[in-house]
């Protein structure tokens, strides 16, 4: 049975179990795009388990607060650069669209990929020192040379803003469902669908809970610098000792 993602936020009302948070809370977390399965998992792990003292979630419409340690921040109908500043230490940026069958989820604000530089600039002005961005991409489509480094001018602009730590997680996403108007198009699509079996296992999408766990561990272990997780690393982290994989990733020389 599907669970309303806001049920995950209700965990913020519970008392934290000593030692269950992997370490002391670390300031204020701000989440842009707390939607979809990944947003649900990250809120559950980071807000519900009290990884941070306080959690801010960007929203398009008013949402009744009342969850201890979690607060929604309304995004005004203005360019991002003109938004009022809030105080935050760590930020997560997710581009997963809201699921239509979650009414509350649709009230949250989700950025478009083209808004990343402006959003990062606003976050930096808010005092954010650690920025984690999940960059979903179509499986098997990202050139090999771009998997392990900065893949666009937008990402380069983000890094140039002077964050203490930047985590870029490249997670493969499932192909979008496409509807075809006529039989010929459907037949062609069926014949070409064999190509999906040619994508290596390491390029296949992984469960949102595992991506969230990877980000959680990376936020605790990553030293100063820019850290890019290629799709193969995200996949490998789900196959065994996730903490060891993440530790090896963030410790690798840049």
Task: Describe the protein's topology.
Elements (H helix, E strand, L loop, with lengths): L5 H4 L18 E5 L3 H12 L6 E6 L10 E5 L15 E4 L22 H10 L4 E9 L5 H4 L5 H7 L5 E9 L9 H10 L15 H14 L3 E5 L1 H7 L4 H10 L3
Parallel strand pairs: 1-2, 1-4, 2-3, 4-5, 5-6, 6-7
Helix pairs in contact: 2-7, 3-5, 7-9
Summarize the structure.
The protein is α/β, with parallel strands linked by helices and 254 residues long. The chain has 9 helices and 7 strands, in the order αβαβββαβααβααβαα.
Question: Describe it for me?
Answer:
There is one protein chain. The chain has a single domain, classed as Rossmann fold (3-Layer(aba) Sandwich), CATH 3.40.50. The protein has a seven-stranded parallel β-sheet with strand order 3-2-1-4-5-6-7, with helices on both faces. It starts with 5 loop residues before the first helix and ends with a helix. The chain is 31% helix and 17% strand. The protein has nine helices and seven strands; from the N terminus they run αβαβββαβααβααβαα. α2 (36-47) crosses α7 (208-221) and α3 (116-125) runs parallel beside α5. The chain is α/β, with parallel strands linked by helices.
Fraction of helical residues: 25-40%
CATH domain class: Alpha Beta
Main beta-sheet annotation: 7 strands, parallel
Structural class: alpha/beta
Determine the CATH topology: Rossmann fold
Assigned CATH architecture = 3-Layer(aba) Sandwich
Strand order of the largest sheet: 3-2-1-4-5-6-7
Q: Note the total helix count.
A: 9
Q: Please, what is the average pLDDT?
A: 76
| Number of distinct beta strands | 7
SSE sequence, one letter per element: HEHEEEHEHHEHHEHH
Strand content: 15-25%
**CA(first)-CA(last) distance:** 43 Å
């Amino acid at each position: 049975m599907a669970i309303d993602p806001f049920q995950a936020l209700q965990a913020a009302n519970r008392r934290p179990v000593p030692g269950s948070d992997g370490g002391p809370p670390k300031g204020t977390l701000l989440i842009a795009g707390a939607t979809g399965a990944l947003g649900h998992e990250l809120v559950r792990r980071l807000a519900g388990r009290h990884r941070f003292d306080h959690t801010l979630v960007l929203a398009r419409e008013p949402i009744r607060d009342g969850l201890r340690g979690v607060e929604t921040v309304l995004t005004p109908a203005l360019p991002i650069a003109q938004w009022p500043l809030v105080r935050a230490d760590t930020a997560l940026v997710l581009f997963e669209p809201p699921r239509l069958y979650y009414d509350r989820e649709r009230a949250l604000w989700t950025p478009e990929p083209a808004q990343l530089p402006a959003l990062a600039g606003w976050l930096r002005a808010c005092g954010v020192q650690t920025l984690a961005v999940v960059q979903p991409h179509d499986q098997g489509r990202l050139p090999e040379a771009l998997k392990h480094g900065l893949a666009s001018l937008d990402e380069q602009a983000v890094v140039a803003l002077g964050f203490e730590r930047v985590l870029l997680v490249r997670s493969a996403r499932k192909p979008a469902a496409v509807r075809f108007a006529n039989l010929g198009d459907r037949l062609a699509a069926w014949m070409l669908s064999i190509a999906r079996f040619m994508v290596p296992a390491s390029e296949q999408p992984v469960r949102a809970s595992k991506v969230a766990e990877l980000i959680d561990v990376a936020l605790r272990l990553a030293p100063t610098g820019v850290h890019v997780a290629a799709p193969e690393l995200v996949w490998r982290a789900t196959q065994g000792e996730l903490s060891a994989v993440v530790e090896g990733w963030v410790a690798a020389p840049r």
